[in-house]
Write a structure and sequence with these properties.
4 helices, single chain, 3-stranded antiparallel β-sheet, two-stranded antiparallel ribbon, 180 residues, mainly alpha
């Protein structure tokens, strides 16, 4: 069966064009002077619907925003962890100087420890956050060590632990600021 299609005279695309159309292949003949193309064999060419490109763009944009939001959330969690660590450091330093009672110190350090653990458990379980989780373990270890030293009456060692804790918090804060 032979179909004749009028030749295209306009350079603007036809918005009413079907989603699939017949394409003249090499070797097809054109009727001289008629402005028609004779199609001998038929091939269907499918156009990608315009909505599929927009949908793909939207999905990619949402996934990018989602990753950004997760990164921002994790960044804020690390900042909060450092704030709780600094609170524990100040409380232990006050206890070391005899400015707060032992009972208050115990309760406050336990609360800081709980909050740090809760925040760190919310960090994504991916290799990208392995260093952050290691930093949390180190912070908790230094807090516990200083607290134990004060409880044992080894104030010089407790002071050294607090100096190390403070130094590590500063280093983590710098890394957090550079990474975020």
């Amino acid at each position: 069966m032979t179909h004749y299609f009028p030749a295209r005279t306009s350079s603007t695309p036809d918005r009413r064009a079907p989603k699939t159309r017949d394409v003249a292949l090499a070797g097809d003949t054109a009727d001289a002077g008629q402005g028609h193309v004779r199609v001998v064999s038929r091939r269907r060419v499918k156009r990608s619907p315009g909505w599929s490109n927009r949908a793909l763009s939207a999905v990619l944009l949402l996934s990018l925003v989602s990753c950004t939001n997760k990164d921002e959330q994790s960044h804020k969690q690390m900042q909060e962890i450092l704030l709780w660590s600094a609170s524990a450091e100040m409380i232990l330093d006050a206890r070391l100087g005899g400015r707060v009672p032992e009972g208050f110190t115990d309760l406050a350090v336990q609360r800081c420890h709980r909050e740090i653990l809760q925040l760190s458990s919310q960090l994504p379980q991916t290799s990208r956050y392995d260093e952050a989780r290691a930093a949390v373990v180190r912070l908790n270890g230094l807090i516990a060590a200083a607290h134990d030293e004060i409880g044992q009456g080894r104030f010089d060692q407790a002071h050294q632990d607090l100096v190390e804790l403070h130094s590590y918090e500063v280093d983590q804060g710098i890394l957090l600021g550079a990474g975020g």
